[in-house]
Every structure is written in structure tokens, then in C-alpha cells.
Amino acid sequence: MSRLYLRDPTLSSVLNSSQSEDQKEAYFLQEQTELNLLLIGTKEGMVHVRIFGCFTCCILDMCEYLGISCSVEALRVSEDLRRIYVVTKDENSLVQIVTVNSSIFKTHAKELFAVAMKYVKLMDLITYLRNTIASITETWESFLLEIDHKLSKYAKKVPEGGITADFLDLLIFGICASELQEFLMHDLTKKGLEKFGQTIEMSYTNIQKLLLKNINKYGQNVTFQLAELRGMGRFDCKYEIVGLSDEKIAQAIQSCGAFLIKAAEIQQIINNSVINYKAFFRWLYGAILTLMDENVPGEIHRMTQQDVAYITEFLQNFDRVGGKDGGGFVMEQLGQYLADEPLSAEPTNEDPDSWEAFLEENACLESHSAILKRAAGTSLVQQFKNVALKVASIFTTPRTRLQGYFRMMERETLDIYQCDPTVTLRVTSVNASGDEVIFAFADQSPHEESCVLLVQFGRCTDGVSGVRVNFSPRRVIDLQFYSSAILSVLLEDVSSSTALLLQMTVATCGLKNLKGVGPLTVSAPSANQDDVPVAKDIKMPAAALGVSGSRRVGAILADNRRKVKLFEMEADEEDDEDVSGVLMTDTSLPKDVDMPKETTSAD
User: Where is this region: Disordered (predicted)?
Assistant: First the structure.
């Protein structure tokens, strides 16, 4: 429903370049049509599972599960999203694969997609409102800060209450104190007041546009999105598993309503301030001309009783709002709404027929959850922060509830091998046919023969298979899956220190079924690099490998990190995805790319 009737925030000229980039990213997220996941592993052994890369639905502690300090080295999720495979390395350098049951992504994909999309929408709107408030603050400061600063300097020169007294003496009796005359003639000046008069209306106009077109419009969008989210939470047969709290959503709606009321309150203050400002500055301009012995225009000289009332009302705020040091001055009430602190001058409403007075007389209505209430004493910034906090709190319960649906599968926790702690762990993985996942590890332990360990997970527990492929006397430098059927291995000839790029098919490696749980001990080699038909002598010491089957290219990084060799790697024309055939032809002439000397690349 919201997609049909509520427009998304548009890129506005008031947003800077970084904010515009954030807005483009939000549009990209909102265009998603299928559930997708981002898995993040940390060196502290934590696994973060995020939908669309932003909505955290689960945080797994592998250290707690394994009972030992470990780091997450690699992650892979099956194509049907039912399982997450976590490669860990503990403090004893034991490499393991832990299988996590994540079938909730399969059984409740639509529900999780809908809730995550609401999260994306709400966070996008909150970000947009935050940027709009920042733009309002900048607009106000750019036009009012200079004159406000000048008045603050003047306020420090006179005793408490002296500002109002001096201006009232000038207004009523035409008597100008020496401090006030110096301020008007030297600090404020005629030219400065003229310039400020031209910009004051523009500043208020811009602020009102931002309030009406951005704050009100998209603040109402937040309320609508929250109402839809509350409806989803009440649909127990579908969304009970997510754990949406109706109470927290209601609190967020109340907070957003108070935010909209606060924005309307600012608009009323602006309307009153514009009238007071015009009267005050027109009179002050005439006073400066009089002090300079210049002719005062007739339209400025004429002043009605209503104008005097406007000026007097404006002057009443001079000593109501003070700085923290007691001698400061804030020019008018708008600024306090844009500060992250309680209001210093609360607007008064003496109308007996107002909505607030009606609610005070009817406590039963005032306490009703459907009645939006005004947040007294808070600024716009404070109320917005409350909205952001309430919206974020809605999704804490789903995160806790969903956490319980991710279970470690003990029968599929495999000890792979004891790696060398001084060598960077080399591991790669790929989703094979069906829901199978294949891992490949480069065993570079100095006390073992250099080899590649292959582990394949199938649909069931009995479908775990593995093999150890020996490459001695050559040493495995790096490895990466070229496709789901081909593994690219970068080898080093120990005698000549030159590298060899090897393309080997997984099907010919002779994967053997692993019974039970324990170290991977299958050691019968299924292939030797000399028996593989596709191999390329790199003719240089190498450090890292990068391949892409979809682009049919490969890249080798030299050992000195200053040179890259690119290869065009073409598959067999008959069937480039055939597992049993010759998958890779010999590479074409390599293209040497010399990198700048100052450029370095990590492994």
C-alpha cells in the first residue's frame, strides 16, 4: 500500500554530495525484489547475518559454541539459504567447518523480506529527516548567526535586563544609551542592517519550505510505515515468528506524532517572528538613520500601535533567553528548537478553546493511545532523536527472537587440519550443483606435504565428502574456484621459484565420503599436477591468484607486488560447464601490467 501512495524522498539540492550518495544507496536497497544476505565474520569469532546488508537478524558467537577462542576465516551460505557454513581457526591453529541451520530463510522468506524492507524504508526516512534538520540548522545559522553574535557581544556590556531597557527607552522616549548607540553605529551599522533585512525573509522562506515539503511530508510517511508495520505484527499467523512488539510500535507512532506537532509549532513561531522581525527592523533602521542625521523615509517613520505591540513582543525575548555564561543572547525563539537541549522559552497558549485545553479537561481522551500528544519542553532535535530511538527499538525484539532459530549442527562440525600459524590461511568456496557447497584449503604446513584439501557438503549429513590432493614437490601458493566445477591452483616450483597456474576439475579428484565427525584424514591423491591437461608456466615468482569464470580471465600478482599478469582463459567450445570434459584451453599471450612503484597490493 505504501509503495502505491507514498513517494520516496527525492535527491534535494539542500543535501550535500555525501548525503546524496547515501540516498542513492537507499534507493538501491528499496529496489530489491528477492531476499539476499550479507555474512560478516570477525577475528573475534562473531558472525553477523544481515538481510540486504543492513538489517541484522542474527549474531553468532563461534567462540561460545566451540568453547575456545577462535576467528572466522570464511563464510558460505547454501543456495537455498538453509545452511550457513563457517570456517574457523582456533587459538591452537585448528581449522574447522561449523554448519549452522538457517532454514528460517527458506520457510519464512516472505515475512523476513517484508520486515527487512520496512526497516530499510524507515531507516531511509529517518536519515532523510536527519539531513533535512541539518539543512534547516545551516540555513538558520547562515542568516542569523552574525547578527545574533553581535547582539551577544552587546549583551555582555550591559547588566542583566539592560538590553530590553535600552531598546524600550529608545522606542518610547527616543533616548539612546551610549552602549546602544555604539552598537548601532559601529557593530550593526546601516549597511549591515540593510543586508540583513534583505535576507531575513529568504531565510524564513527556506526554512518553511523545508518544514512543509520535507519534515511534514516524510514525517507523515514514517507514521504510515509504522502503521503498516503494526498491522503486520498483528497478523500473528504469518509474522509471529518475527516477534514485532505492538507496544513498541505504538510508542514510535506517538513519538513521530509529537515530532510532527513540534514541526507545526515551529511554523507558528516563524509566522509570528516574521511579523515581529519586520516591525522591529523597520523601526531599528529608522533609529539608525536618525542617529546618523539622515532623512527617514515616510513609510519607515510611520508606526501604528500594532507595530509598537509587535516590537514590544519581540523585545520581551531579549532577556528571556540567555547564554550559559549568563551574559549571552539568543536573538529569537527559533534557534532553541534547533539545539539538542530543552527549550529555554516555552511558547504559551492561553486560548481556552485550544486542543490542549480540551485534552486537559478530558483525561480519558488524553490517555488514549490513538491521541497524539505534544511533547512539552523538548526541541525539534530532541524529539527527532526520540523518534529515531523508538523506531530502532522496534527491531531489537525481532533480532532477539530470530536468534533462536539459528542452530549449530553438531554432527556436521568438521576438524579439517592443523594449519601453520605463521602462514596466512588460504581458503575458497563455491556453490556447486543443487545445494552442495565445496571448500578448498591450501595446506602449507612445513611438516606436511603441500596439498589441497577439498570438502564437499551435500543435502544430508551422510553427504559430506573430502579428499587430500598432493602437489609435492611443488608448494601451493594460492587457490580459487574458477567455477563450480573447476579449481584454479597457483603452485611454486621450489627449485626455480617460478609459479605454475593449474586448472583442475573437482569431479576427477575422487572425493570420498566421510563417516562421522573428526579430522579429515583422506590422503590418497586423486590427481597430480603433471596429469592435468591445463597448466600454464607463469615464468615469474608469484604471490596471489585471482580468477573469474564468468569473465573468463585470470590475474597473477608477482611476488614483489609491482607486476600483474592477465590471462584470457577460454573454456571448451562444446560445453564450457561440462564437468567431465577438458574445461580450459591454454591461455593466450599474457598481458604484463606494470603497477606504479608506490602502489602495493595485499595478498
Answer: 571-603
